[in-house]
Design brief:
By secondary structure, this protein is of the alpha+beta class. Helix content is 45%, strand content 12%. The chain is built from 13 helices and ten strands. Bound molecules: 6-diazenyl-5-OXO-L-norleucine.
Length: 304
């Protein structure tokens, strides 16, 4: 039996002493208000036991981690048709880079760079009656938690500073790969990024990725092949131009967000979420990556 609680307690007290905790994101002004000293970690194992340390129950802006959840809903509705509009290759570029999109004629490299996630939002708008409400209902059901919601202030902060995302959406539109209005798609995309959850809630949401598509309550959301594809995308594209480094150091499929969260899974074993708001140069949580490297090293378990 691996002593997860002891391990995450040790990791937590160790990383909190780090001198360089990275830099809290400031290009979305609301995010700059967050305390850079926070650190939380929550792990749920295959037997549904929970292990928590430090600030694991404090809510934060999940940002790009929501891209995995919107992709999940989209994939469950449209199936493989999604890949006609989005590719599945790592970009090797920052999350908001646009030159590849122009070169590749409006087909985003993958669903986790901003352009790809904007196309996912566009598809969901075409398929859902009331996208913002329907998405929240999906997420609340997945986690069995009706308290999960959007932070309107963060969504608005993103809208007024979201010049690059407007550029991406307009570029997609010019290539015919955005079917709804730019303003409407981005409003939904910004709200998805502005969802607030804590480490425990996110670990519950990501349980399906380690449990062949079945959530904690036993309901099936995606089939085994679809889960395989999403985990492959997390491994190859979940950390943008640092996906190789994350695979090298940590060895788990995962997804980061500029709010400082990282959600990762070891299929059949556990789902784990860290939160530490300070980011490295690539926009991924500095202490989160360090903590997860220590977790896979100390438990001697990874997908490799
Ligand atoms: O659109 C953006 O730039 C943000 N709402 C999300 C970016 C993000 O989280 C990148 N992840 N590390």
């Amino acid at each position: 039996m691996i002593k997860y609680q002891e391990i995450i307690d040790n990791i937590s007290s160790g990383v909190k002493k780090a001198k360089n905790k990275g830099t809290v994101a400031s290009y979305i002004p609301e995010l700059a208000k967050v305390d850079g000293n926070k650190f939380g970690i929550h792990l749920i194992d295959a037997s549904k036991n929970s292990y928590s340390a430090a600030d694991a129950s404090e809510k934060f802006s999940i940002q790009s981690i929501s891209k995995v959840l919107s992709l999940t809903l989209c994939f469950s509705i449209v199936g493989n048709d999604i890949w006609k509009r989005i590719n599945v290759e790592p970009s090797g570029s920052p999350f908001n880079h646009l030159s590849l999109l122009e070169f590749e004629k409006g087909i985003p490299r993958n669903p986790f760079n901003n352009d790809g996630a904007i196309v996912v939002a566009d598809i969901l708008i075409s398929k859902l009656k009331n996208p913002k409400v329907d998405f929240l209902v999906f997420l609340q059901k997945l986690c069995n938690d009706a308290t999960i919601t959007y932070n309107k202030k963060v969504a608005e902060s993103e809208r007024i500073t979201g010049f690059k995302n407007f550029a991406a959406a307009n570029l997609l539109k010019s290539f015919g790969n955005l079917h709804n209005d730019v303003e409407i798609v981005l409003d939904f995309y910004f709200h998805l990024c502005a969802i607030e959850m804590n480490c425990e809630q996110l670990a519950k949401a990501f349980f399906i990725f380690m449990n062949h598509g079945k959530c904690l309550q036993g309901e099936t959301y995606l089939n085994i092949n679809q889960i395989k594809r999403i985990n492959a995308l997390m491994l190859t594209c979940g950390f943008y131009d640092e996906a190789g480094e994350f695979a090298f150091e940590v060895g788990l499929p995962g997804k980061s967000g500029v709010g400082g969260g990282i959600a990762a899974v070891l299929p059949n074993k556990y789902t784990v979420v860290t939160w530490a708001p300070g980011l490295n140069e690539k926009g991924n949580s500095k202490l989160g990556m360090l903590a997860l490297e220590q977790l896979t090293t100390q438990t001697q378990q990874s997908i490799f």
